[in-house]
Amino acid sequence: MSIFIVFLIFLPFNKKLSFDLISLILLARIVIYLIPLAFTETMEGYWGNYLTVIGTFLAYIISSQVSLKQNNNYHRLLSNILMIFLNLTSIQVIYMYFLLGMKYGTLNINLFKYYLVTPIGGSNYIASVILALLIFAYYSDIKKKHKVISIILAIIALVIIQSKNAIFVLLIFLTFRFIKKYFRAIKGINENKKFALFLTMFLAITGSYILYFIIDNLLIKWNMGMVATNGSIYEVINALSSNRLDVYSSELNRWTNHFIFGNGLAYELGATRSHNWLIDLLVQSGLVGFFLYLSALMSWYKRVYLYKKSNKFIKAAYYAILVILIQGFAEVSVFTLTIDVLLWFFIGLSVSESKAIQRNRLINQQ
Fold first, then answer.
1. pLDDT confidence of residue 30
2. Inter-CA distances, 68 with 62, 102, 273, 355, Å
3. Which of 40, 49, 113, 219 is a plausible cystine mate for 265, CB 3.0–4.6 Å?
4. Mean pLDDT of all residues in 218-242
C-alpha cells in the first residue's frame, strides 16, 4: 500500500470526481458482498477479504481520476516508481535466499518456500507481484539500462522462488513474443518461400523438442513433492498442479449451495481458495457478482484495446493486467489486497490515459 500512497503524492488529479461504468460496478460489488452475511455459516476472514473489495474500488476510482494528459514525464515517473518497487522486491528475495542458505544450509523446495516470506507475502504471492511488474517493465518507456537491470533482477528472483505458475506464464509470454516477431520477420521473405517453409518447420520441431524436454525433465520432476503417477490424465495433471483439480471440484460444489449471490468472503479455518479467480468469483459472489466483474473487465478492454499499439504506457499496463489475470487461473493472487490494488490501479491508469487520448482527438478535430 505504501507505493500506492507515493503515487497519490506525486500525480495530478482531475478537479472534478467522475464515475464511469467500471467504478459503478465496483461500487455495486461492495454492496453485493454484504448479502451473503444473511446466510453464511462462518465469519472467518470475512471482513479482511471485504477490505480487499473496498480497496479494489478505491484503487480504481483514484487512479482513473489521474490527469496524465498523455504527458511522457508523468508516464516515466509512474514507470520509474514501479521499477524501484520491483527492484526492491527482487533484491529482498535474493537477500532472503542467501540469508536462508547461511542459516539453514540447503533446504528442500517445500521448506525453502515455507521460510521465504517478505512483507508482501509468501513465495508464490511474491512471484505474482514480480511477474506483473516484470511485464510492465518490458513494455514501459524507461531508460534501456534501467529496464535491463530490473528485468534481470526480476528473473533471478523468479528462479529463486521456483514458482511453477509464474515461470510457466513467463515462458508462455516469451513464446508468443517470439512467434509474433518471427511471423513479422518472414513476411519479408516472399522471394524465397521454400526457405521460409523450411525455417518454420525447423523451429516447430525444435520448439516441440524443447517443450517435451521441459515437461519431461522439469515439470514432472519439479512437482512440489507430488507424485506424477502413471494413472489417468486427471491424476497426472492433479499431481503436477498440487491437487488443484480436486480443489476446483470441491469449490464448484460449494458454489452450488448459493449459486446466485455466492457464499460470501468467509472461509472455514484451514480451508483454501480454489487457486482460480473465476471459480473464486463464482463461489464468493455467485452468478450476479460473476457477470458484474466480467462486465467491468470487458468495459476496460473496449476502452483501451484500440490504443495499446500506439501508446506505450497503455500497452505496458495492458499486458501487465493480462498476466495478472492469466496467472490467477492457477494461483491465489486475484482477490487479495496487494494484487487487487495493483490490478485495478493499472486498469484505472490505462482508462485515464485512453480518456486523455480521446479528448485530445476531439480537440484536434475542432
1. 95
2. 13, 47, 37, 10
3. 49
4. 57
Looking at every residue in the chain, the average pLDDT score rounds to 82
Calculate helix-pair angle for 144-161, 123-139, nearest 10 degrees: 160
On whether the CB atoms of residues 344 and 60 are closer than 8 A, the answer is yes
Report pLDDT for 226: 47
Contact in structure between 124 and 131 (CB atoms under 8 Å): no
Q: How far apart are the first and last CA of the chain?
A: 42
pLDDT at res. 42: 81
Alpha helices per DSSP H over 187-243: 193-213, 233-240
Q: What are phi and psi of 75, to 5 degrees?
A: -60, -45
- Angle at 24 (CA atoms; ends 23, 29), nearest 5 degrees: 95
Residue written as grid cell 455495486: 28
CA distance 283 to 74: 39
Q: Which three cell numbers stand for residue 120?
A: 508482501
> 247 near 240, Cβ under 8 Å?
no
Sorted by sequence, the CB contacts under 8 Å of residue 251 that are 6+ apart come out as 273, 274, 279, 280, 283
Q: Which range is least confidently modeled, 4-8, 55-59, 127-131, 309-313?
A: 4-8
Of 123-137, 216-230, 285-299, the least confident = 216-230
Give the residue from 134, 138, 132, 159 showing the smallest Cα distance to 336. Answer: 132
Strand partners, 66: 13
Mean pLDDT of 61-88: 80
Distance CA 129, CA 86 (A): 8
Q: Extract the C-alpha cell encoding 319.
A: 499486458
Cell numbers for 169, please give them. 506464464
User: Quick one: pLDDT at residue 14?
Assistant: 58
SS3 content of the chain, % helix, strand, coil (to 5): 75, 0, 25
8-state DSSP, 172: H
Cα–Cα distance for residue pair 253/85, rounded to 1 Å: 39
Sign of the CA dihedral 74, 75, 78, 79?
A: negative
Bridge partners (DSSP) listed for residue 13: 66
